[in-house]
Amino acid sequence: MNFTLSEEQTDLAGVLHGFFAAGRRDLASVVDEVTDPVDLVVVFEEVGHHAVAGPLIETLAVVPALTSGVGEGSWSVAFPPLVPHAVEADHYLLVEGDTLREASPTTELSSVDPTRRLFELTAGPVIATEVPTHAFDLGVLMCAAQLLGLGRAMLEMTTAHALARTQFGKPIGQFQAVKHHLANVLIGLELARPLVHGAAVTMTTRDISAAKVATSDAAWNTARIALQLHGAIGYTAEHELSRFLLQTRALRTAWGSPSLHRARVLEAL
Amino acid sequence: MNFTLSEEQTDLAGVLHGFFAAGRRDLASVVDEVTDPVDLVVVFEEVGHHAVAGPLIETLAVVPALTSGVGEGSWSVAFPPLVPHAVEADHYLLVEGDTLREASPTTELSSVDPTRRLFELTAGPVIATEVPTHAFDLGVLMCAAQLLGLGRAMLEMTTAHALARTQFGKPIGQFQAVKHHLANVLIGLELARPLVHGAAVTMTTRDISAAKVATSDAAWNTARIALQLHGAIGYTAEHELSRFLLQTRALRTAWGSPSLHRARVLEAL
Amino acid sequence: MDLSLDAATVEFQAEVRSWLAAHVRPLSSMDTASGFEEHREWERQLASSRLSVVSWPSEFGGREASLLQWLVFEEEYHAAGAPGRVSQNGIFLLAPTLFAHGTDEQRSRILPAMARADEVWAQAWSEPEAGSDLASLRSTAVRCDGGWLLRGQKTWSSRAAFADRAFGLFRTGPGERHRGLTYLLFDLRAEGVSVRPIAQLDGEPGFAEIFLDDVFVPDHDVVGAVGDGWRVAMSTAGNERGLTLRSPGRFLAAAGRLVELYRKNPDPALRDRVVDAWIGAQAYRLHTFGALSSPLSGPAASVTKVFWSELDVALHETALDLLGEAAPGWRDGWLFSLAGPIYAGTNEIQRNVIAERILGLPR
Amino acid sequence: MDLSLDAATVEFQAEVRSWLAAHVRPLSSMDTASGFEEHREWERQLASSRLSVVSWPSEFGGREASLLQWLVFEEEYHAAGAPGRVSQNGIFLLAPTLFAHGTDEQRSRILPAMARADEVWAQAWSEPEAGSDLASLRSTAVRCDGGWLLRGQKTWSSRAAFADRAFGLFRTGPGERHRGLTYLLFDLRAEGVSVRPIAQLDGEPGFAEIFLDDVFVPDHDVVGAVGDGWRVAMSTAGNERGLTLRSPGRFLAAAGRLVELYRKNPDPALRDRVVDAWIGAQAYRLHTFGALSSPLSGPAASVTKVFWSELDVALHETALDLLGEAAPGWRDGWLFSLAGPIYAGTNEIQRNVIAERILGLPR
Question: Which residues form the Acyl-CoA dehydrogenase/oxidase C-terminal domain (chains C, D) (predicted)?
Answer without folding.
Answer: 227-359
